[in-house]
Amino acid sequence: QVHLVESGGGLVQAGGSLRLSCAASGSISRIRPMGWYRQSPGKQRELVASIGIVGSTNYADSVKGRFTISRDNAKNTVYLQMNSLKPEDTAVYYCSLTAIGGSNYWGQGTQVTVSS
Question: What is the average pLDDT value for the chain, to the nearest integer?
Fold first, then answer.
């Protein structure tokens, strides 16, 4: 079993920055792909950014150039640096880890609210 704990969400004004962290613990025997998703009321959960085993990254078009995903393998932690935040970035942000076999583990989510 894998346990993911997100932190770093909060309230920020438009144009501001936040850094989310996600610490993974439990049955992790090797580095696995991880990602950040977000979901706002009435919308489907969407991929924000992902990072692969060797550090390759992928971003949603809406956050390219503003968000940066990174990982510290020694700490089993993935980060999401969010700059130039916009009101439309307001959502609950979830961390995800893809296990061997393809199943996904999810964190409990952290609220990000961007005021205009």
Answer: 94
Q: What is the dihedral of CA 77, 52, 85, 75, to 10 degrees?
A: 10
CB 95 within 8 A of CB 36: yes
What the block records as the tokens of 99 is 């296990």
Q: What is the pLDDT of residue 29?
A: 67
Nearest to 36 by CA among 88, 83, 81: 81
Please compute, for residue 36, the number of CA atoms within 13 A of its CA located in the half-sphere on the CB side.
35
Nearest to 78 by CA among 6, 2, 1: 6
Structure tokens of 98? 């893809």
| CA–CA dist 38, 106 (Å, integer) | 12
